[in-house]
């Protein structure tokens, strides 16, 4: 049985007119589907096409869908010898996605290493400003100390450390500031203060905090989910209180209080001075967990311990690298080696500050591939969305 | 030639395959197509489920698709439909044609004027035919890529509706992208 031939009516003027009119507007869901295929930068350009494109690409539903569709990790980067003091947003291939001219503030400012939708640029002589890479908005934090600390801080030659974190339960962004070098001639107390970024005018001042009761190694500070973790200062506290290997102190930004009950995974208080010296420990944040990187020599090994349960202090060794190939040794042996980001496919991105370069490790191997781009002065992970307007 | 057991009252092709009749919006055209081709449309699938077995005798009317567009859509579906056979009902059936052949077909298929492309993408969206929707949306995206806003408006027949101040504001807000 043959199929009947389809019957088409003659093309009328009315029908032609209807067809012409319909080409002016794509159905919204189709437009959504089409625009979702473009990267953020192209979309910001496409906003200039017409009103409906502009409003669609600024709609929160679209922005969320777009982020899910284009999940490539982004980094905030500051390049060496960049006279324009710009902050750049780069992707994993080293391509520059966005450049914010002048955002660094000055040639000595450095990005704090965080994984947030904001950037924190600081010097260690009391300059700190917070940048929103999507909007370009900048907030400079006041240099004056908290009222409680006014006479205890050297303001003419300050020494500071800053850490920016986000309290997930309230959405507050807070900065922890440490003043003074330990062992400083005039008593050398490390003083701590907190500033709430989005707290409104009422809270726009530094608030003095308790001291943790021992010296922290401020340069070791990392922020994990609104908590700032430090290793103890080896020179001052290690000597005074006996060897306390891998002892970790933390400041909870939500509660604004210290905790001293977290032991690292390496047996502490045990061992001779030589075993103490043979471990080089650094802290990092990966996949929402605190990580302790333990590097040892003779033989050279690198272990990454993840704190899987901060309540019970339970650590799991997730990475163990015994370096063999010549290509990875220079990377791993470098003192400034810092794990930066763990990708969904298991690859590890690391930052080596000495050479100012990013490397990506093949999972399960010792091979590190360098990301091709200019040499960095500082880097951070950017989790925000470049399409958002606020 | 054995006729397949046919309980729905649809006509059958000479090989005994089940067919479905689809009717265009103005009732002007009726198309009899292989079930496997028609079911590429999730909308048709749902309509059949809802209507039940008996109602399919009169054919399924698609109120939002005119005859010319429906003919073209069915051209796509016939080409991309899985090679149906009762013996392979359990396994996911691949299309009857090879990969390369299909790619060539797709490339030629979207070489149409803007009006037709718009009708096709709108129909693909309404009929929920994933492959055709993806093909037509990507075609439109490719037409947009690399063009200035002015060129895009011309190609797609869009009016910007921006006032000069608004246009300035958009370019300023998104200056980094230009």
How large is the share of residues in beta strands of chain A? 35-45%
State the assembly state of the protein chains.
Answer: heterodimer
Helix proportion of chain A = 10-25%
The proportion of strand residues of chain B reads 5-15%
Overall mean pLDDT of chain A stands at: 84
Distance between the termini of chain A: 64 Å
Give the uncertain stretches of chain B in residue-range form: 1-10, 85-91
Task: Tell me about the largest β-sheet of chain A.
Answer: 5 strands, mixed
Secondary-structure content class of chain B: mainly alpha
Which helices and strands appear, and what pairs or packs with what?
The complex is a heterodimer of chains A (390) and B (178).
Chain A: H1 13-22, H2 28-35, H3 40-46, H4 51-58, H5 60-69, E1 74-79, E2 87-91, E3 96-100, E4 110-111, E5 115-116, E6 119-123, E7 127-131, E8 138-140, E9 160-167, E10 172-179, E11 191-196, E12 207-208, E13 216-224, E14 227-232, H6 234-241, E15 247-252, E16 257-263, H7 273-278, E17 279-286, E18 289-296, E19 301-309, E20 314-322, H8 329-333, E21 337-342, E22 348-352, E23 357-361, E24 368-370, E25 376-382
Parallel strand pairs in A: 5-25
Antiparallel strand pairs in A: 1-2, 1-25, 2-3, 4-6, 6-7, 7-8, 9-10, 10-11, 11-12, 13-14, 14-15, 15-16, 17-18, 18-19, 19-20, 21-22, 22-23, 23-24
Chain B: E1 19-23, E2 30-34, H1 35-38, H2 42-51, E3 60-61, H3 67-80, H4 99-109, H5 114-127, H6 130-144, H7 149-156, H8 164-173
Helix pairs in contact in B: 3-5, 5-6
Please outline what is shown here.
Chain A is of the alpha+beta class. Chain A has helices at 13-22, 28-35, 40-46, 51-58, 60-69, 234-241, 273-278, 329-333, and strands at residues 74-79, 87-91, 96-100, 110-111, 115-116, 119-123, 127-131, 138-140, 160-167, 172-179, 191-196, 207-208, 216-224, 227-232, 247-252, 257-263, 279-286, 289-296, 301-309, 314-322, 337-342, 348-352, 357-361, 368-370, 376-382.
